[in-house]
Amino acid sequence: MTLQTHILGYPRIGAKRQLKFAEEQYWKGEISQQQLLQQAQAVEHSNWQAQIDAGLSLLTVGDFVYYDAILTHAVRLGIIPARFATEAAKLNQLDQQFYLARGRAANCQDVAALEMTKWFDTNYHYLVPELVPQQQFKADFSELLAQVDRAKAFNTPIKVVLPGLLSFLYLSRIVATEHSSHVLPACACGNDHTSVNADPTTLQFVDALLPIYADLFDQLKARGVDYVQIDEPILVLDLAVEWQAAFERVYNVLQRRDDLGLILTSYFETLGANLNLAVNLPVAGLHIDISREKAGEFFWKKVIDQLPAHKILSIGLINGRSVWASDLLALNEIRRTAEQALGDRLWLATSCSLLHVPVDLSSEQVPADIAGKLAFARQKLDELVSLAQGRLDSKTQPTTTPDHSFALLAQSRAEPFAVRFKAQQAKLNLPLLPTTTIGSFPQTSSIRAARAAWNKGQLSDADYRAAMQKEIAYAIAQQQQLGLDVLVHGEAERTDMVEYFASLLDGFWLSKFGWVQSYGSRCVRPPIIVADIHRPQAMTVEWICYANGLTNKIVKAMLTGPVTMLNWSFPPAHRSRREVCLQLAEAIRLEVADLQDAGIAIIQIDEAAFREGLPLRKADQAEYWDWAVKSFQHCASSARVDTQIHTHMCYSDFKDCLAQISAMDADVITIETSRSGLQLLDVFQQHAYPNAVGPGVYDIHSPRTPNAAHMRQVIDKALQSIPAERLWINPDCGLKTRNWEETRAALTELVHMAKQLRAELSAQS
């Protein structure tokens, strides 16, 4: 018997990032929309062909979108917030998606983009749909139906992917008013969505959406679709009773015909307490992710035991979030046991969508010590089919021998914040409301060209260093001209905040083409941790000292924190995250010591992903917080009392982790606030955050230029709860994705606002 095989989704960027480059050309007006569609559909076709070539039973359709699946679904449902509505009416669906995501479209007025936040515990970002209490839905799924029509040419059974009705509502938020120009959320929808108090008022839209889903199912069936994959990832969360009840009501309505099979999909965790609910929903089948099961848990056996005798069970055996080759021999034991119990009702699948791993390993030059031990998305298709067919010439996962000489008890700074801050104020002598940036400045075409030439051996090390120094000098000069108080060197020499440090630390391997989508056209290339982490030498001192010598102002050093390094890399197969994170923390601790010995007074240790790696269930979170907080404390522990430690976090939900952020004990935290409607400031106010804060005053991910008045709204809000002497002014995030024209315009407004506010506060004192 040959088992059915399928995947939950495939990377949509293209093996050579074709979609990224086409979209960016389109936004610049360099290609037409028709040319963009042609290039995108070529990637779509290639993705389908890869599934056919691998021999999968079902062709997965509908996972290909241009920016984000939740955003695409919202636009297909006609959910266009009021501030976009007038201009969006002139646009087709594709341009509407780009407009909502970027806040900018050709011949349209710039407006605030939709909030962007993390997709569960991944580094992928989704756009948060905004609903109003009187929301009207005007569904148009013509583009999805066109995808189905194109896929039919492959003459393979089709499975269409859709966001589940309830997960879509759970991940959305209701805004206070339809006419708000910059909306304030009714609930804090962050990257984890584990709160049992998730806003239940979005459930009011269930009755309006049910007939839309039912009608779409009819249209899909009429086109010959046999199965629909309904993604309901919230089934792995700690759901409140009203959401559990909603699942029963919704799926009793939707599964109304036997000739279209609904496969309910969960991933990133086991079903946990929702097991009984999930197995008894009236659908054709259920998908579970076994990659997150704890050792000895065997939760999949519980699912089999409780699954009704007529239902399909799709088991996610191939880990969709790991780049390590699957141990097919071990997985085959699960397959055999499940097949004995289920027979042809067993489907084999990836644990989740493969968009979280790089596309194809075949173009890489893999080091000998890990050769044959890796698998990217294309290779995982082959693994899946091999497992289903019993071809078990498995490449087992690598084992690593920990360096037992590396024993680390996490350290922390001895002096309390009040003592440190007083010493730092005396040393730094900064003005009230000091201005700074998060670290990076535009990665210009000249920077990229120099780096490319250097990587190809066409530019010597000395010439490359000179080229980067020229860019650093330009960034310093621009900041001085703008009037910023604390400068940065701009990170011209860094490709990525994690990749750069990984290239200088022992224990990492960097792929050449291992790109993964982070959001929209933004792609990252996560390093792979292959051994113990060691710092052979200083990594940043030379560059920062060069910048420091160009100005009399303070230059802030930029490091990436250990938790972010871990969460934005592919971890080793058989080592604890705690152990690896503390090794990274020790490397950063040594760098902090070297920087301050070189005369650097402010050191920023970015922890953008501090919240991201938190387990989805509350019962599992304490252990993570313990080692994550200790790792940050350790890497800052070498700082002297008058060395100021900053950290940066963005696009996360801080409402339930302020205690842990406080325990990190950074002297200054800079955070994203502008895109999330200032909700993070409310959280900091409610918890009386004791240290200094730099709330981001404008969204750098949108190309629109903010004005000083809009920035002032953020600071006025912050001043309600944070004393001015503990308040900094900065953008939301780094500026590497912007160009210099946009950067200068925005920072000019920022500095103007800061000087104006200082004068007002001075006059009041």
UniProtKB/TrEMBL annotation:
One of its GO terms (molecular function) is 5-methyltetrahydropteroyltriglutamate-homocysteine S-methyltransferase activity. 5-methyltetrahydropteroyltri-L-glutamate binds at residues 20, 123, 522-523, 568. Zn(2+) binds at residues 648, 650, 672, 733. Gene3D superfamilies: 3.20.20.210. Pathway: Amino-acid biosynthesis; L-methionine biosynthesis via de novo pathway; L-methionine from L-homocysteine (MetE route): step 1/1. One of its GO terms (biological process) is methylation. Its cofactor is Zn(2+). It holds the Pfam family Meth_synt_1. L-homocysteine binds at residues 438-440, 606. Residues 5-334 form the Cobalamin-independent methionine synthase MetE N-terminal domain. The active site is at residue 701. Its EC number is 2.1.1.14. L-methionine binds at residues 438-440, 491, 606. Keywords: Amino-acid biosynthesis, Metal-binding, Methionine biosynthesis, Methyltransferase, Transferase, Zinc. Residues 433-755 form the Cobalamin-independent methionine synthase MetE C-terminal/archaeal domain. Belongs to the vitamin-B12 independent methionine synthase family. PANTHER family: 5-METHYLTETRAHYDROPTEROYLTRIGLUTAMATE--HOMOCYSTEINE METHYLTRANSFERASE (PTHR30519). This is 5-methyltetrahydropteroyltriglutamate--homocysteine S-methyltransferase. The lineage of its organism: Bacteria, Pseudomonadati, Pseudomonadota, Gammaproteobacteria, Moraxellales.
